[in-house]
Amino acid sequence: MTFRHSLRALAIGSLAMALVPVASFATGWTGDRSAVRPKANDGPKIVTRASTTDPSGDTIGTETAPDVTSYDASVSGSNLVLSLEFAGPVSPASSAAPNSIGGFLDLDIDQNGATGDVSWSEFLGGVVNGLGNEFYVDLNNADADSAVLVDDNDDVAVAEVNAAWSATGVRIFVPLNLLDNDDGLVDTGAVVGTLNVVTDVVPNDGVLSSTQGDGALLQNGRFQVDVTWRDFDGNTGTGTTFVQSIDSAVIYFFGPNNWEFLVKVLDGCGANNHWWVFAAATTNVEYTLTVTDLQADVSKSWPNPLGVAAPAITDTQAFATCP
Q1: Residue 130 — left, alpha, or beta (φ > 0 → left; ψ -120 to 50 → alpha)?
Q2: Cβ-contact 10, 19 below 8 angstroms
Q3: What angle do CA 278, 165, 131 make, to 5 degrees?
Q4: Is the whole model's pTM more than 0.70, yes or no?
């Protein structure tokens, strides 16, 4: 499959768009991505409730450039949400500001490196991650509220997808139906930089891998929710997330038809400068609910003794980690 540097414009249905040339991001990089390496038969399996940090100061080259500090993927409703945070202020490519960024977010939707195209993070960033892209998000063509989703197999734009920029990051919302991927399972990685050079790859080991087990990640991957339990027979286990939204998760202990827990992490920063944790459980087994602010590396736990009907948790002082 031919490498994309000659790509100057992408057709999105009947919509014609003027795009930043992909070549402007990776000046001097030419060739065929499919010839970079033998593709692995089966890459690492991850779920979209996944988050990884990236060391500050590990940028490539000498140019002062965007430095990724975290990357996460989560499912919120019908969207796959991809979030990048940086060590300093950033802005979309269309701004043409000194801190504007370009790059690609790789999407291997079948978690199989033998299908799709070689990932941009591998081709441009020098990692060996075994990703086989079916799609990617093109940040080189992002503006204040959108980015471009590209079908990597056919080299055509699928749609403009929503983007939300903060002072130091961006969240991309990719409708799952565009990926033909209702379960939200995806392997992913990212390569970013200025519009002239590559500056950082995340994760450094190639693929965003889930280390959260069955726990939920809420608020676009910032807060990790874990529950451990022990019943009257001495059996122990961890809660499994059945369904989640951006701020709430339903968790079961013993089976998917027997829900135990509703947990919410709410943004109360505008009200009292705290993140709030609300929870309600329909159980009298022993459990410990633990919520971790992955960005601030702070955890808080709420235990319940064996034989006690679980009380409601309404903690509006849970995390003093607002911006």
Answers
A1: left
A2: yes
A3: 90
A4: no
Q: Return the CA Rg of the chain.
A: 21
Q: Which two tokens stand for residue 141?
A: 């063509």
Q: What angle do CA 100, 106, 109 make, to 5 degrees?
A: 145
Q: Please, which residues have CB within 8 angstroms of residue 155's CB and are 6 or more apart in sequence?
A: 1, 2, 4, 7
Q: Which of 207, 222, 200 is nearest to 56 (CA)?
A: 200
Pairing assessment for the beta strands 11-12 and 198-202 based on DSSP bridges: unpaired
Q: Which residue has the tokens 């960024």?
A: 101
Please state, in angstroms and rounded to a whole number, the distance separating the CA atoms of residues 157 and 179. Answer: 12
Give the span between the Cα atoms of 121 and 105, in whole angstroms. Answer: 8
Residue type, 137: V
One digit per residue, pLDDT tens: the chain, 323 residues?
Answer: 333 333 323 222 222 222 333 333 443 333 455 554 444 433 333 334 567 778 777 887 655 678 898 888 877 667 788 899 999 999 999 998 988 999 999 998 887 788 899 999 888 887 788 888 999 999 998 999 999 999 998 889 999 999 999 889 999 989 888 987 656 678 889 999 887 788 888 887 666 643 334 567 788 668 888 899 999 999 998 888 777 777 888 888 988 788 899 999 999 999 999 999 999 999 999 999 999 887 787 899 999 999 999 999 999 999 999 97
